[in-house]
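Hi there,

I know you've been waiting on this one. I reran it after we fixed the sequence typo, so this is the corrected version. Both the input and the resulting structure follow.
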Amino acid sequence: MTRRRTPGGATGVGAVCVLVASVLWGTTGTAATFAPAVGPLAIGAVAMGLGGLLQALVAAPRIRREAPRLRAHKGVVLVGLLSVGAYPLAFYSSMHLAGVAAGTVVSIGSAPLASALIERVVDGRRLTRRWTTGAVLGLSGTVLLCAAEAAGARSGSGARSVGETVLGVGLGLVAGLTYALYSWAAHRLISRGVTSGAAMGTVFGLGGLLLMPVLLATGGPLLASWTNAAVGVYMALVPMFAGYVLFGWGLAHVPASTATTLSLLEPAVAAVLAVLVVGERLPLPGWVGIALVVGCLAVLTLPTRTTVRPRATATGADGAARTDTAALAGHAETP
């Protein structure tokens, strides 16, 4: 299978786009606390639904131009749109049932493993040592962060039942799988020549349409106050629309498995905002977990130095070896 190589500079830009998107996504939990009367299904539907439709609207000219190419990959588009429709409902319900910490960590923490398995099985992509090292650091950090926040929650009031927690964790795994699937679908379309705007606009626009009935059925509280409405508008415009535009740009330069691993920054940002804005306490193991997540991001984003040895490929009439200049134009390995 021929795979397009990505130059090291473009890979760095792609990683930065994913990291900025992850910071925006990390604000969703804190933003939702300002609208406690709005249920998780309504939050998920307004955020991903309206955000997805807005992406489709902005990208409409590109989608029209690239419609034949999109139709040629309609199976991939179908996987992506179904995953976009399912993800926010599972993700926000997971946080509601298991708690923000456990729901976010299970959802985002399981996505890199699901992405790696999808790429391995479907694309035959080999997992690099660098990705494995980063994933181990990131997953260890998110587990520590989850344990620290869970310990803080137990010391407070409002403990959850075992059944709610188990169901919440299960929905978190569903969210992680669907996140990995729509990331893979978007990356697959982009790697087949579809622009990132058309790929993301199509997948998220159609997924947003699937979420409209859910929004109509559950979104009444969003109109009950200006605060609730402002939260809904913020969620749709900033984390979802702007965040996923950046994520699409990132997927044009890095594999889906790397992008989902970089998004492990999201629960770390969510935890810091919970401390600074909501007033929660984060024990020492939680800060250690955040440090490990930062280490994961450093492993995956710092450029690697590659040494390419010239290779003699031809001998001139004077007997001197000619250097193969193509060997000097090698690219750094994409993590």
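Quick highlight: Confidence is low (pLDDT under 50) at residues 1-6, 306-335.

Best,
R. S.
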